Amino acid sequence: MSLSPEPQHRTSRVPRWILVSVALIGVAALVLAIRHGVIVGRAKRQREDAEYYALKDIRVIFHAQREYYANNQYLGFPCTLKVLGGMPKDGAPQTDPTSTAAQLLQDDLASGHADGYTFTLSQCTHVENVGFNGSTTYHLTAVPDHPGWSGFCVDDDVERLVPGEYTEDNPNILMDPTGGTNCTQSAPNP
Question: How far apart are alpha carbons 35 and 29 in whole angstroms?
Fold first, then answer.
């Protein structure tokens, strides 16, 4: 039996601080990847929600235009959203709708700005005939406040009021995926 000590083999060890650093970097990368996915997912949901409400707002404006025309045929379609608004303020005395304050839209939408979009009426064709002094057509646009959201457009005219040719519930809404007013694609039906 030998009393001499056995030779110790020295193994090279990685310092503990390097292992901890690598582990922390890995965890941080994982957290950032998950967070990025959550942020991207949240932004996509926010865009989809905003576009959904913009399409609903366009339909509301479309119906308000139709109702205004039905009640004021001699005036045609209004060329400003403000005319479709005019709701009495809370606590104010109730007033009857007029041709300049039709009370068909809530004030935020009548102001032209709602749900992250700016709504504009344009391209109104003004006609003066016996018993008629108003617009027979209009172009409605919804331009997003945020890049990456779609823009929307709809046209309407009195010709489409002929029964059977165009239904009130189905305006032909087109979209511009780049967020402008070059609307060439059919918009989804919310």
Answer: 10
Domain tally for the chain? Answer: 1
State the Cα–Cα distance between residues 105 and 86, nearest whole angstrom. 8
Q: Are strands 174-176 and 151-157 parallel, antiparallel or unpaired?
A: antiparallel
pTM score: 0.72
Q: What is the pLDDT of residues 138-187, one digit of tens each?
A: 899 999 999 889 999 998 876 655 444 445 556 788 889 999 888 888 88
The answer to whether residue 8 is domain-embedded is no
The Cα–Cα gap between 125 and 132 comes to 13
Residue 12 located in a structural domain: no
9 domain-assigned? no
